[in-house]
Amino acid sequence: MKKESGNWQRFWILLICFTIILICINLKYKFIYNSHEIFYAFVLLIILSRILSLNIFYNYSRYLKYSLIWVIIFLSCLIAYSYKTELSNIKNRLIANVIPQYGIQKSKASMSFQIASDGHFYIQAILNKETPVTFLVDTGASHIILSKQAASIAGFDILNLYYDKIYSTANGKVRGSSIIINDFNLGKLYLKNVKASINEASMRNSLLGMSFFKRLKAYHVNNDILTLFW
Fold this sequence. Notes:
Blueprint: H1 2-29, H2 35-53, H3 60-82, H4 84-98, E1 104-107, E2 110-114, E3 122-127, E4 131-137, E5 144-146, H5 148-153, E6 165-169, E7 172-186, E8 189-199, E9 206-208, H6 210-213, E10 218-222, E11 225-229
Parallel strand pairs: 4-9, 5-8
Antiparallel strand pairs: 1-2, 2-11, 3-4, 3-7, 6-7, 7-8, 10-11
């Protein structure tokens, strides 16, 4: 315990001394300019002080191993921070391939979705600020159509619906109840007061029809990727 306490005392003394020296040198030569460089320099001083505070002649291999681990951790953090944008893009692409409905935010005004394994496009949006709903993209549908299950989760009263619309489908005519989605959020796209309907018949997926796509600036499909522009 006394030996370990002595090591930590040497560590703090070395860290303070190195910090004072670095400040004095920087005041003269001005080689550290911003907060990021200050952070990296301070982490490096911590590692250096800790290495020098150890008795490297005692169990040399053990301390060398620990020193290398700290150096690797520091370099890994430095690389990760330097390439944070690229790493974020890789992460988004991996997520989009595994879960296509999440999409990739290409820019502040565009978003792309990978085609799913069943040959359809799916888009997950947030309704009324808190409810995630996955839509099947259906440009053949004229409106946004919610399944009863999705509508219930989004806070609509499905027990007291007034069915005022008639839709022709492959299975015949079905009724729909007109609603207004107060907030429709997709990535950085925010739409207010979006017209939609709740389907009376049972549905496997909610549908994202043309009433949504008409509110976009443009959209296109290329190489199995759907890109939305607004």
